[in-house]
Fold each of these.
Amino acid sequence: MEEVLKLEGNFTLNLFRNGKKIDERTLKNLITNAGKAELANLLGNVSSPVAFTYLAVGTGTTAADVTDTTLEAEIVDTGLARASATVTRVTTTVTNDTTQLLKAWTATGVKAVTEIGAFNDASAGILLGHQVFAAMNVISSDVLELTYKFKNA
């Protein structure tokens, strides 16, 4: 029997206001070509690969594409700038088969968040996963929590 390795990304985005969840989105996302190439580097320890440990949100509305290398309009202010995530392994089907990135931001301004991405650098780096969705309207003091999971599908 032949084994097939196919990476799938899923994310859950939660919005909390005054301690209460007011919005939740769970969607599949697109894995980029550059992300796949860097994963191959990680598997073989080729070309000084760097793990994907950063999460970012943005306001872009152009559909995600496998050729994307950045978010269309990454947010760099209002407390929602790209940040290091807490990275763990969790079990989906087989023990520790899923990498999970988790980050919660506290907003200091108003934004209509419409895209998310996972990167391997704090300011540039390679975009592994990307998705665009209907606006999630964030206001000051809201907590935006992103859980990103990458697993063998």
Amino acid sequence: MQYGWSYRHEQWVGARQLLSGRQWFKSRYAAGYESTIPSQPGVYMIVLLASEALEPSSTWNAMRAPVYIGKSENLHRRFKEHVYERSHVGNYVRELPRLRYYYCIVDKKELSEVEGQLIHIFGPRVNRNQPVVLRATIGTPIKI
């Protein structure tokens, strides 16, 4: 996975087509705001506002940088996991200034596609730093 925003035009065009017509909502990324997040499937971005990290001036007000992008079959539950249980994401963003939580309701069958497209165009740093998880399955025994 690349780190940082994509410079490939075709990725932005693909994202625009996939995300067109979807409504995004935002909330503070902090304890006490979980009641604003629905218990529906969707994708979400934990976003740093440049004006909060640097200085509150008009120069920085419009700049936003997603630090983590994820998907969940229950956005409300996932929000609480990040904020209260200090998931691996919470550990990475704990020291950052105030963050915003942007989310979009997405049908379950589209979750991976929408999340993947967002990760490809924004390349958020925390997604890159996730621990590697190895999964194995036991299949049919091999006859010798």
